[in-house]
Amino acid sequence: MKRNYVLVALCLSGKLYAQTTDSTSNRLEQVEIKAYFTKQPLLKLTSSAAVLSQQHLQSQQSPALVSVMNTVPGLRMEERSPGSYRLALRGSMLRSPFGVRNVKIYLDDFPLTDAGGNTYLNLIDPYTINQVNILKGPDGSIYGANAGGVISLYSKGYHTLTKPEVNLQLTGGSYGLFQQQLNAVLPINHTQQLAINQSWTRSDGYRQHSSLNKKNIQLNYNWQYAKHSELKFTGFYTDLGYQTPGGLTAAQMESDRRQSRPKAGPNPSAAEQKAAIYDKTFFGGLSNQTNISTKLTLFANVFGSSNQIKNPFITNYEKRDEKNLGTRLYLSYVDRISKNLKYELQFGLEAQKGWYDIDNYDNNQGNIGNPQAKDKLENSQQSFFARTQLAWLERLQVELSVGLNENKIAYQQRYPVAQMDKSHIDFGNTWMPRAAVSYQATATFALRASISKGFSAPTIAEVRSSDNIINNDLKPETGTNHEFGIRWHLWNRRVIFDASVYSYQMNDAIIRQVRETGAEYFQNAGKIDQKGIEAAILTYLMTPKSSGIIRSLQVGSNFSLNNYAFKNYKIGDKDYSGNKLTAVPKTVWVNTLNALFPYQIRLDLLSNLTAAIPLDDANTVYAKRYHLLQGKISWNKAIGQRYQLNFFVGADNLLNQKYSLGNDINAFGGRYFNPAPLRNYYGGMNFHF
Which residues does the UniProt record annotate as the domain TonB-dependent receptor plug (predicted)? Predict the structure, then answer.
């Protein structure tokens, strides 16, 4: 009998499921996640995790990942203005004035996080991503330095096709938004396949002086050149430019929330100084996987990037030339001790080297003036790792892993005084162990527990921040995470529950501070107590069917409780011990509703309730709580056997909330706020053939 497949992709605290229906069955199958070298069911995974499918990524507006990323408990993504994003996983934005730090991010198994510790996530176009895998909690034993977790992005084009497939999407919306996105997967022959992803995004922005112009092209190529060997290439070029409107005081935001940062004292306005970031980046990586035997696998890759960055700011004009090279390789052996006992062994290395030329000049209204400072820095880091896993009766899984991380920085001043020899900062050798266990008590119920060490060295942007001073006093963040969780599927998986509780005790947390000039610097903050609860429930109120007004209906609810506080933090005569951790909301509650109607009409609703957020270490200023409601309606129409059209319209901030997303932390002069857009709209079409 002919089967009809309806994919319902949902991320609820780490789950992606596919529903398969026909006249004889109605079951919900769990999709596997690639984690710790192999694919495995999420139910049995020893970590708290999440999976976002491509369908889920497209359930809201496509120019940014912000709303869909924030559906994952424990993960927070912010947007200061179009193109300027921050992301934190089980932590805060203390270290991230822009960009991503303290979280390790991979693109198709290549580290997107560079040798200096930064990840330019805004270089990636969301439309190129097919799936996102998220591992929550420190995982330095396998993935190198991180204290928050690991995010893996997988591109479109690696699924095997026999015929070419092309998708063209056009989107337009409020505040001058226009986006064109193209994805083409081209099978060359039965062993080779090429994928091309191209996009152009522009926006005038909600605030004055916040326009965006981004051009991206990405190539993915895979070649199975032997029966047990495959070669893959991922490469992209991004030309990104966006204006930075700057933070406002509460009074300025109340007076005119769309204005950019005005003139203050001796400092000109953001518009006068043409404050912006321009980033032209090449990234490429080549990997090879060979199954030497049915038990032994060898994986090796090489990757590199080149970033040319210009950043006119209020007080200076910065130019950065950043180059990175790296490799990741490992051996994996899988075998059985007995019929009921299976084991895995992996040994490997990940190493990166970065070269950074950073020059600062006077900013004469967007033009380069006299030099202020010039420095040359080099960063080298390597992580040696080993892991073993025992699986008994497909029920009990025990993992033991350990990593040895080495991180060093060399620097040399070139201006105003030329330094003849290099100076060095050595963050030492750090062991990062992890022990974890998962027990599947029944076919639908599993418990998990883990203990792991986190480690995150200061990034190049923190050692040499915008105050143009080399800070060789910064120490790495370290800490130990204890975690326990459960996964439970009820009533034939029509109700899915996932929860975890954790305690992460961090030492020497790195915190952003701002000088009177507006330049930032970083310092360590003693100890931080991070305790949290994450819970999610997904209910299929109506499983897919072929008749009726409502063809399928599912609702989900995700909740995060972040009980984060400074444990021991003193600056001079100021004692912040016991205060709430800056930039972390106490609670985040996200609800989703997905409904399918006749004629392939789909409704996606998302509700995000975020509690008040402390914006300074003294807890004297808070960003107000907000309730963000978003919705999207799409209609899919088949044209013949080959073509499909999809039309969609959507709205953001339906409740017209006045809120700030992407606040400036510990801002001097009270300029904390980056107002987010009020109610706004978008619409577009997708053509598939």
Answer: 43-149
